[in-house]
Amino acid sequence: RYRITPLSNLSAGTTLSNTASIYFDDNDPVITNTYIHTLYDCTLLEPWTTGNPLICANDVAYMSAFDPMATAYAWYLNGALVSTDANYVFTSDVPGDYAIACERTTPFCSAVSETTLSNAALPGTALTMSAQGLQAPDGVQWMWYVNGVQVTDQTGQWFTYSASENAEIWVLTVSENGCIDRKSTRLNSSH
Question: How far apart are CA 147 and CA 163, in angstroms?
C-alpha cells in the first residue's frame, strides 16, 4: 500500500497526475493508467445567477447554475421542485414574491443558493373614456399614439382627441416599478 498527501498550499483547480510503475521480480514494469485529480474547494462553488431580481408579470427570468463539476441540479420554486436542469426559466402572470433556490451537487459536496424574485404587476386594466377624454391606467409615464404615430405633446395620464375620422389610439403606461403595458381603443367618427 502506498499513500501520498498533497502539499497544503495547493489552490483549488490544481491538477495532480498520478502514474505508477509496478515491478514484479526482474520483469519490465507494469505502467498504470494516469489518473488526474483536480483539487476542488466546495466553499468556492459560485452562487447561481439571474438577471434582474425584479421582473414584470408575463416577463421571463432566465437563471443559470451551471458548474463544470456539478453532477445534479435541483431548482425549487417556493419550496416545490420544478426542474433538474442546469438552467431554469421562470415566467408568471401572477404578481408577487417568489422564493427560488437551486441545489447543485458535485462529487464532493452540495450547495444551495437562493434568492427572492419579485414579479411586479403590469399597470392598470384598460383605457376609460369620459367627457374629458381617454384616461390611461395609473403609472408614472405615458406615451400616447394615434394610428401608430406618437403624439409628443400629450404625455399625461389623460388624452384629449378630437377628430372627425376613425382612429386607433393606444398608450404605453410605465408603472412605478418600471413595468410597461400597452392599452388601446378604437374611436369612430360618431364619438
Answer: 12
Going residue by residue through the chain, which has 191 residues, state the pLDDT in tens, using 9 for 90 and above.
667 777 888 887 788 888 888 888 889 999 999 988 777 777 777 667 666 678 888 788 888 888 888 899 999 999 999 999 999 999 888 889 999 999 999 888 888 888 888 888 888 767 888 777 888 888 899 999 988 899 999 899 998 876 656 788 889 999 888 888 888 887 765 54
Q: How far is 158 from 191, CA to CA, in rounded Å?
A: 17
Q: Are the C-beta atoms of 82 and 47 separated by less than 8 Å?
A: no
| Side chain identity, residue 50 | T
What pTM did the predictor assign? 0.65
- The answer for residues whose C-beta is within 8 angstroms of residue 145's C-beta and 6 or more apart is 151, 169, 170, 171, 172
Write out the three cell numbers for 78: 417556493
